[in-house]
Amino acid sequence: MIDLRKKKVVVTGGAGFLGFAVMEKLRQRGCPPASIVAVRKAEFDLVHEEQVRRMYEAHRPDVVIHLAAVVGGIGANRENPGSFYYQNLVMGVMLMEHARQAGLQKFVAIGTICAYPKFTPVPFREEDLWSGYPEETNAPYGLAKKLLLVQSQAYRQQYGFNSIYLLPVNLYGPRDNFDPRSSHVIPALIRKCVEAVEQGEQVVQIWGTGRATREFPYVDDAAEGILLATEHYDGPEPVNLGAGFEVTIRDLAEHIARLTGFTGRLVWNTNYPDGQPRRCLDTTRAATFFGFKSATPFEEGLRRTIDWYRSSRLRLAEGTTGR
C-alpha cells in the first residue's frame, strides 16, 4: 500500500473535470497542499517533450496520476481524429518514458472505454480489450489511450516499472464540459433541456436513435476508485471503473427532461450515429483488487449536476451584467 499523505503526487489535467475531483479526494485524505500538484496545460504543455522533462524536474513527483487528455463527444471525435490520436498518444508515451527515467515510484495511466471493440460482449470484461477494432467514430482516440496499456505492461516487464492502467466509463457530474461543440451526452442533454425550458421551446433534438446504451459513474466515485487503485493496486492487468448499471440514451434523455422540467418533445435525428451500440462494464476486478464500488445513486448524481449547471449559468449571467 502507498500512503499518499507521504508522497509527492502530480495529477496531470488536475484542474479539469475528473482532475478537480481527484485533487479534492487527495485533500480529504489529508495530503499536505504542498505535496499535491495539479499540472495545467498553461504551465506545461505535455505534448512537447522538453515541457514533460521540465515538469518532472520542477516537481520531482513520487506518483503521477495521468488524467490529461484531448477528448470530446462523437462530433468532436469525427472532426479531429488525427489531433486526438497524436496528442493523446504523445502525452502518454513521453510522460511514462520520462517517469521511468526519473525513477518514479508509481504511474497511474487512465484509459478510456473507447478502447474496447465496437461489439464487445456485455458486460465488458478486461480480457476482451483486444478482441476487435474500436467503434469507428472514436477509434483514433481509443487506440491512442489503449497504447498506454501496452507501454505500461512492456515497461513493467523490461524495467520493473510500477504502472497501472484503469478504464473508467462515461463520467458525469458538476464541473463537466457543457460546451455543445465538445461535450458528452449527459452535459449536452442537460444544456439542451435547460435552455429549452428557459426559452419556452417545445422541441429538443438529439443525435442518433436513442437505442444505444451507456453506463455513467458519478465523477466523485470515479475519483475515489482511482485513488483506491493508486493506494492498493500494483498489478499489470487493466481494471474497469464503472457504475454497475446500463441505461439507454432514450431513457436517459427522458430522465433528464423530467428532472429539468422540460415537457416538450424529444426528436431523434437518425442522420447522426449512435456510437458504440452498448456500454456496460464488468467491475469485478475493481471490487476484488482494491475494494471499489460506485456509491452515488444515478438520480441523485443527475440532480447535483443539473443544479450545478443552473447555478453556474446564474453566476455567469450575474457577472456579465455586473450584478
Mind summarizing the main beta sheet?
6 strands, parallel
Physical arrangement of strands within the biggest beta sheet: 2-1-3-4-5-8
Structural class call reads: alpha/beta
Our estimate of the beta-strand percent is 5-15%
Helix-strand pattern:
EHEHEHHEHEHEEHEEHEHH
Unreliable residue runs? none
Shape by Cα distribution:
globular
Q: What does the average pLDDT come to?
A: 94
Say how many strands there are: 10
Name the assembly state.
Answer: single chain
Summarize the structure.
This protein has 323 residues and is α/β, with parallel strands linked by helices. Helices cover 45% and strands 12% of the residues.
Keywords:
10 helices, alpha/beta, 12% strand, globular, two-stranded parallel ribbon, 323 residues, single chain, 6-stranded parallel beta sheet
Question: What report would you give on this structure?
Answer:
The structure is a single chain. α1 packs across α7 (219-232), α6 runs parallel beside α8 (249-260) and α8 (249-260) packs across α10 (298-321). The protein has helices spanning 17-28, 49-59, 74-79, 81-102, 139-159, 185-199, 219-232, 249-260, 284-290, 298-321; strands at 9-12, 36-39, 63-66, 106-110, 163-168, 203-207, 213-214, 239-241, 247-248, 265-269. It is globular, with a radius of gyration of 20 Å. With 323 residues, the protein is of the alpha/beta class. α5 links the parallel β4 and β5 (163-168). It has ten helices and ten strands. The strands form three sheets. It has a six-stranded parallel β-sheet with strand order 2-1-3-4-5-8, sandwiched between helices.
